[in-house]
Amino acid sequence: MQVNRELFDLVMAPNYNPAAVIPVKGEGSRIWDQNGDEYIDFAGGIAVNCLGHCHPALVNALKEQGEKIWHLSNVMTNEPALRLAKKLTDATFAEKVYFANSGAEANEAALKLARRYAIEKFGANKTQIISFAKSFHGRTFFTVTVGGQAAYSDGFGPKPQDIVHCDFNDIEAFKALISDNTCAVMMEPIQGEGGIIPASAEFAQTVRELCDKHNALLIFDEVQTGVGRTGNLYAYQGLGVTPDILSTAKALGGGFPIGAMITTTEIASYLKVGTHGSTYGGNPLACAVAEAAFDTVNTPEVLEGVKAKSALFREGLEAINAKYNVFSEIRGEGLLIGAVLNKDYDGRARDFLVASANHKLLTLVAGTNVVRFTPSLVIPNEDIEAGLAAFEKAVADVVNG
Fold first, then answer.
1. Which of 45, 103, 152, 270 could bridge 49 with an S-S bond, Cβ 3.0-4.6 Å?
2. For residues 75, 101, 104 and 223, what is the CA-based torsion angle, rounded to 10 degrees?
């Protein structure tokens, strides 16, 4: 069988439009396509491949668990799930864990739990959920409606109700929305899809204080910011604001599908037997790989290394910008970096992505106006330098038309 991009159009649903390049091998921060062409990976599967491709610790964990037990229903538990849950609770504010398959499912669980907690504890009217413009929380109908981009939720019929949106980092607008009928506020510490926009410390603290005042739960969506991405294990730890519920996925499995919702014992008690579930949640293969990823990332060497590599990235991007004047700002934390295009290149983020690929570099966009970089947390410095050299050539191509 000939496997090529044309086969995608023949057999796959058209909701994606992938590049013509089909990668067949990865190692560290490099991938190779069907033609043997080599690329530097600054995309990381959209902040998923936190240890790059085929990291030995993850490969070994998968092989070892694959020879033990692959799957059990949640009628039984398993050792990898329990070990991973213990490590998550030991390293965070949380006391209880619920495993799922993805960030969307972790967020779905968080939202359902928040509603059930509020209704059972405070009454049937306490159902309002506040989220933020440009936010992104997944593609289930509940999470995509909570997400602050209506284009993703329009066209599917009646939406889940009692969900409102506020401009991010707008303290006065938020104060005007929250009330005793608010059951939960969902926010990203750094908006990812919305353009790599960090929450200000003042805004995050105000949200926390007003949630406490109105008995509303604060949910942090750390699907993209979690597991070392910002240089902290979770971004809330650097922000100085602790949520009531946190969702984690993407980098949690280092490329193997897994998600988790973590929370306190008191809040988790409202997720009684039978109220929610997931066939594959807590799968032994996924949890074994995630445990290996978590153990590798959650070290001072890796987390401090993220901060050092972030500085190298920023210095390189600033040097490129000094030469070509295409960015108005370089923002983000750790290795979640957004290069914001200035007014002369407004709306042309994809042009930079395409030009980068032409120079054998994988990048991302965050909307139409931000070039996004989410590489491996352990990317070698020489790969950063080589990738930035390729990116400079891409920038030159766009500037020179």
1. 45
2. 120
pLDDT tens digit string along 220-251? 999 999 999 999 999 999 999 999 999 999 99
Question: CA 385 to CA 400: how far, in whole Å?
Answer: 22
Q: How many angstroms separate the CA atoms of 229 and 337, rounded?
A: 10
Report H helices in 92-191. Answer: 103-122, 141-146, 150-153, 171-177
pLDDT digits (tens, 9 = 90+) for 81-127: 999 999 999 999 999 999 999 999 999 999 999 999 999 999 999 99
Of 189, 197, 187, 261, the closest CA to residue 225 belongs to 189
Torsion of CA 302, 304, 309, 312, to 10 degrees: -160
| Separation CA 109–CA 83 (nearest Å) | 21
Contact 222, 247 (CB under 8 A): yes
Token code pair at residue 84 = 């991973």
Radius of gyration from C-alpha coordinates of the chain:
21
CB 140 within 8 A of CB 148: no
b/e per residue 216-252 (b: at least 16 CB within 10 A) = bbbbbbbbbbbbbbbbbbbbbbbbebebbbbbbbbbb
The residues, ordered by sequence, that sit 6+ positions from 195 with a Cβ below 8 Å of its Cβ are 134, 338, 340, 366, 367, 369, 370
pTM summary value: 0.96
Region class of 52: left (phi > 0), else alpha (psi between -120 and 50), else beta: left
The answer on pLDDT for 1 being more than 90 is no
- Beta-bridged to residue 221, according to DSSP, are 247
pLDDT tens digits, residue range 264-323?
999 999 999 999 999 999 999 999 999 999 999 999 999 999 999 999 999 999 999 999
Cα within 13 Å of Cα(334), Cβ side? 32
Rounded Cα–Cα distance for residues 168 and 249 (Å):
23
* Tokens, residue 266: 């008191």
Contacts of 299 (CB under 8 A, 6+ apart): none
| DSSP result, 3-58 | -SHHHHHHHS-TT----S--EEEEEBTEEEETT--EEEESSHHHHT-TT-BS-HHH
